Every structure is written in structure tokens, then in C-alpha cells.
Amino acid sequence: MMQTAEPLQQTTDAPLDPVTLGILWDRLISITDEGVSAMLRSSFSTILRECLDLTAILFDADGNSIAQGTKSLPSFTGTGPATLRHILERHPPETLNPGDAIATNDAWQGTGHYFDICVMRPAFRHGRIVGYTMSISHLPDIGGIGYTAAATDIYQEGLRIPACKLMQAGEPNELAFEFIRANVRVPEQVVGDIMANVSCNEVSGQKLVEFMNETGLDDLSSLSHAIRRQSERSMRDCIRGIPDGVYRNQVDIEGFDESVRLACSITVNGDHLLIDYDGTGPSVSRGINCALNITSAWTYFALKCLMAGDIPNNQGFLAPVSIKAPEGCILNARPPSPTAGRHLVVHFIPSLVFGAFEQAIPDVVQAESGMVGHLTVQGVHRNGREISDIFTATGGVGGVREADGAETTSTPTTIGVVPVEIWEALTSMTVERKAFLPDSGGGGRTRGGLGQEVVIRNDSGNTLTVFPMGYRTDFPARGYHGGADGRPTRFEANGKPLHPKDRYLMAPGDRVRIMEAGGGGFGAAKDRDPERVLEDVLEGYVSVECAREAYGVEVDAAARTARRRA
Length: 566
Description:
By secondary structure, the chain is of the alpha+beta class. 29% of the residues lie in helices and 24% in strands.
């Protein structure tokens, strides 16, 4: 199966000058940003309000993505265009009315698992559709066994919402909301977040019409074409800068009970890329499988990081790229394969792609990163309220040629972390410790970023159900060009090892300890400037012993001196 975008055709419209185009495109971004602001102000859950697990996208009347909110997640931006196509197949434009809002969380039509809701609203002007707004966010709960990789089929993972009208001519579809409320643990949070998505679309749609009235645009086709054409042209120029050839990579990663192999070959042919995931292992019986839509989204993200960071993110950027994956492999799984923890696999795609391109553009790639782990907690708060919340703990970022990796930073996803004070209030748990893990970043000419240690105690007075979702437990973040690997992730419960993807009953007073992985180093550690090693020791990032053994540098912290060992 292949996923690809159509190249743009030339139009007869007069071209927009670069300054005007830049101004108009910035206005479109501001429209989506206002929608995001509305969503955050009206949201209920921590995963949306604090972690910003969301996206807002603007499409033209033909369904082409042209702008996104600046806080949008790359995975949702990549799946949005396909989701809109699926929605319009079920609800064609001629069946839509002002005030309609259509939603789905279908794993194969949306973002790859049931926990993300995709809400679309048509924007009408003078009685006709001039564009579409879409908002996507991670829900705090969708029923089933919870946000975990432990499910053995998709039916255990919660409520599947086909593309349906949540709002009809501005009025709620009460039957749809009744189905949702009846199937989730925290209905006030779930419905509140869904309505926050509706608010986002409403604000973005109104602002789009105001923008068109102000600028005198009768439709968005010319502007959309100009934006996408420029992105496609820039992306093709970037691809031409890579030598033609076939570049391959494969990595083994943690599955559920055994490892999984991911493989890719990247064919560079002039101004076109073909990414083929042939050689990837089969789908598995636990919830870490990936639909092709989310596999493609993370592939696009990896390519953008490597070669197109300054190119506006829209459908034109996707045109020179084709993606293939064998049907039934873990990166192109089919129903009823469970998918709730699909991020535990697709978050490795950037590392997989970077490793392939290390052969072609070695100075551009980044060493592997420690990523970000999740801990879902379900149960009863000490005040008697039902809880279903997600804690995030971040690892270290891999080093690059000219810079150390960042400490404890979400990557490759860009979600935020829940502040300790908010987490404690919402869950009646106590965060006893949250600190950097010295020496966890791989040594190198540029160092891998540090992971972190988090210790959480159950002070609710009730037994809580905990679902860890961690990776880098068996396969640490690899260093590049002679850099050392980072330290792996570990989970513990009351001092004993805890399965990183299973279910755990946490009694009152129990403690869970999370030690997130460090990033890989870039370049040989012996080439790191001793003064930088001294600075690392003084900051507490590297121990005196590690400076000596990994970097070959003798550090006297008291005297603030460092010298290379003979």
C-alpha cells in the first residue's frame, strides 16, 4: 500500500508577489492560532490544557491543507488531510450546512488510535463552502480498558466513533453525545474537551470569513495554490541536494514481550523521495500497531526536520514524497489490530529515517533521543471523584553536530508536561522527586541530553490502576559518528522492576519510579573540549568519574580545572 500526494498543476491565476504571499500566509496562521487559544481556554483535561496534545488545521474548499496552528503536533498535521478526505466521502460537501461539525476517532481514518478526536467544520461565505477548519485533540478517556498498550484487539480499546455530525446547524446531536457519555469514565472532561474542539473550529471559521471579507478574496484557491506551490518547489530543491541513491536502515525496538524490527529504504531520484518500509516486522497482538496514516505522518515529520525546517507546513510539502508499507506489518496494520499505544512504535520512525540518511547527509542527522514516556492513572481521588489522567516524563534529546542534546525534552512529539502541582491536585498522588539523571546522556563531541528520574506516591487512600507506556528500556538511544549510547529507561514499583507497557495495581502508599532514557552522543567523546566537560561536571550533568572514564578528562571541581588524560 502506498500513500502519496498529487503534484500541483500550473494555474492561470496571476502570481502573488512574495511579500503579499508572506503576509497573507501569516494571517492564516494567526487564524488557526486563535482557534487553538479558544480550544485551550475552554478545555477540561490536563492532556489538552497542559500538554497541548492538539492541532488546528485550515483547508481550502478542495480539502488541501494550507495552514496550521504554531502549537500543533506534527503527527496530527500529517494525518489531517487524509481524515478530511474520509469525512467528505461519508458527508459530501453538498450535504453540509452552516453550523455543522463532524467528528471521528476512527484509528484508520483519524490519527491511528481511538484516543484522538478529529472535529471538522465547513466554513460558509455567501452560502457556499470556502474552506474547512479541523481541530484534533487527545481525549482523557474513551472507555475500554484505558490508555494502555495491553489490549489484545481493537474492541477492548474503547468507543469507535464513525464520521458523524456532532453539531447540526449549530445544535448538538444529543444522541451522539449520549453514546459518548455512556462509554467513558470522566464524561464531563471528555465532552468538555470535544466541545473545546468545536469552539476552536467555530472561531477559526469565523476568522477565516472575516479575513476573506477584509482582503476581498472570493475564494482561497489562488492563495492556497501559491502557498502549496512554493512549499513544493522548496521541498523539491532540498531533495535535489541529496545524492541520488537508495539508503537503508533497520532498528530493533521494544515490542510488548519481545522485540520488533523496523526497516526502511529511501530512494532519492532527482526531486522525489520514495520511503519503503518493506522488511518491517508483522503486526502484533498488543496495542502498539500503527495504521499507515500515522506512519506517513511521522515520516513527513522526520523529513521536515532533516531538510525542510523553514518550509511552510502544508500539502505542497508532501507532494514530492511517496510512502509504502507492506499491508499487515506493524507500520501498516489492519483491523482488528489494537493501536492505542501506536506512539510506542511510530515515535521511532524519525530515528529510523535519520539513520538511513546518515549515509547521505551525515552532518545533518541527529543522534537518537530518549523520547517521552506516559503513565496513565485510573481510579478514585481521595475526595471521591473518578480520575483518568496522564503523566508525562521526558528523556534526553540526541546530540547534533554543533550542539548538545537538550535535557528532558519531549521528542519527537512536541507535547508538554503536566506541572507537578496540577497533577497532585487532580490525582491525589504526590510527586516525591523529579530530577535530572546525571551521566544518562551518551558521551560525545556533543553530548546527549539527560533523562530524568520521577518518583510518584499514591496518597489517594484507594487502589489505583496504573498503565505505564515506556520505551528505550532494551534498546537505548544510539550515538552517531562514534558517540556513545544514552542510558536506557527503567520503571520500578516499590523498588522492583515494572513492565513498561503492562497494567499495575498501585495500593495506597505504593511508589512508582520512572527513570527516562538519555539521548545519544554525536562524535567521539575524546574530541569534546575539556572545558565543556568541566562545565558539565559543575552543572551536575556529568560526574567526575564519567568525565574520567567516558571523556578521558580529569576534573577538579573544587579548583574548577580540567585536563585531558595522557
